[in-house]
Amino acid sequence: MAPRRLKPDQIAEVFRRFRKADPDPEGELDYLNPYTLLVAVALSAQATDVSVNRATGPLFKIADTPEKMLALGEEKLISHIRAIGLYRTKAKNVIALSKMLIDKHGGEVPRQRASLEELPGVGRKTANVVLNIAFGEPTIAVDTHIFRVGNRTGLAPGKTPLDVELKLEKVVPPEYKRHAHRWLILHGRYICKARKPECPRCLIADLCLFKPKTASVP
User: Fold this and answer.
1) Catalytic residue (choose from 9, 22, 125, 159)
2) pLDDT tens-digit profile of 179-216?
3) Rounded to the nearest 5°, which phi and psi values hold at 82?
4) Could you read off the pLDDT of 85-133 as tens digits, one per residue?
5) Using an 8 Å Cβ cutoff, are 91 and 74 in contact?
6) 125 is known as an active-site residue
7) How far apart are the C-alpha atoms of 212 and 8, rounded to whole Å?
């Protein structure tokens, strides 16, 4: 049986409420420019934004460009990000992507998804985050939170993150696409939680298709 889905007018109402509650949502990773955003997002895989921000605060004071990162070197970079999961692989990728940015893009972060995905350690999700936050593109990066919200609510049921992303691209009204990624990730992180969604606090509980609703907030 096909999964239940919200109707177009319901989807529009979901995002109308999100925008009313938070007209200009902010991402939770700290950054200074498109390059530091790219590095922060690459470091955030399988890590919390809090742990990444704790590491990148001191790091970005001394290495906020690809050239400065290469000058810092892999071992010193490791000393800054050691508290983040998979730090050795991530350090290797950050150094390699910094070199590629210099060699192929004049030290600038490209605005094309394909060019971003060519960078070491950068996948579709990371590319979409950079395109959205750094350059204002209406991309939607599907992480575990957005994947859960898309399926649980009936906004965009799908078996894979790419499936959910492509469905969201189709159903989110154009006027809401610019901030859809951040509204959905914040909703999944703080309200529509994995183990016990906080339905009594939810702005869209009456529209959401999730059953049964949780009756109380812990």
Assistant:
1) 125
2) 999 999 999 999 999 999 999 999 999 999 998 888 76
3) -60, -30
4) 899 999 999 999 999 999 999 999 999 999 999 999 999 999 999 999 9
5) yes
6) yes
7) 23
Angstrom distance (rounded) from CA 94 to CA 37: 12
Strands (DSSP E) contained in the chain are none
pLDDT digits (tens, 9 = 90+) for 120-138: 999 999 999 999 999 999 9
Distance between CA atoms of residues 110 and 118, nearest Å: 10
Task: Write down the catalytic residue from 143, 163, 170, 206.
Answer: 143
Which domains does the chain show, CATH number per domain?
8-25+140-201 (1.10.1670.10), 34-135 (1.10.340.30)
Would the pTM of this model clear 0.85, i.e. be above it? yes
Q: How far apart are CA 95 and CA 68, in angstroms?
A: 10
Distances (CA, A) of 197 to 4, 123, 187: 19, 29, 10
211 has catalytic annotation: no
Distances in Å between the alpha carbon of 74 and those of 15, 135, 211, 216? 43, 28, 49, 48
